[in-house]
Xanthine phosphoribosyltransferase 1
Amino acid sequence: MSQEDSAASNKMYISYNNIHKLCQQVAKTIMERGERPDVIIAITGGGMIPARIIRSFLKSKGQKNIPIQAIGLSLYEDLGLDNQIETIGKEVIRTQWLDFGALDKHFDSLIGKRILIVDEVDDTRTTLHYALTELQKEVREQQVKLNRLNEDTTFSIFVLHNKDKPKKVELPQDLFDHGRYLAAVTVPDKWLCYPWEAIDIEEHTQLAIEQGNN
C-alpha cells in the first residue's frame, strides 16, 4: 500500500446528510427526557453547524428558539492540509469567549439554566474539558457576584463523534452517570473529514456514501 493509499484509508468522510441525522437522533433523546436546553454554546468552528442543526430539532411549540452562543478555543497547531495529519496542541487558547455582561442584560445570565455545549468531535477531550471547566467556574463566580447561590446550573455536552481512544483528560463522572454526555456515535481513531472542510463537496459526499457515512 502506498503512503497516499494508507493516508486515505485512515480517513472517514462524513456527509451533511449524516450530520443532520445524528443531530436529529440526539435531539430526540434530549426531548424524550424533558431536558430541552435553555441555551446552546457552540465551540467554533466545528461546533457551529451541529449546534444550528440540533436547535431545529429542539424546537418546542409555544417556546422561543434556543439562543446559540459561541466560544472560540484553539487546540490544533496544524490544520491538516492535503496529506498532513492534524497535530494536537498541548494548550487550549481562548480566541472568543462569552460576554457575561451582555448575557446578564439580554438573557438573565446562565445561572439556573440547562446549557448544552456542542462540538463536532471528542478527540483527546482537552477542548471539551477546558470549555466545561471554565464555563462552570465563571457561572459560579456570577452566582457569588449576584447572590444566587441556590440556583442549579446544569451542563450537558453533545458531540457528533467520540473517538475510541485514550483521553488526555477526563470529564466529571456525573455527566456520564446522568446521561449528559451525548455522543451521537463512537468511531475508530481516524482522521474525520467533515463536509465544511471540503474543497469539492460532491467528491466528499460520494466518498462518505461509499464508506456508509451518509
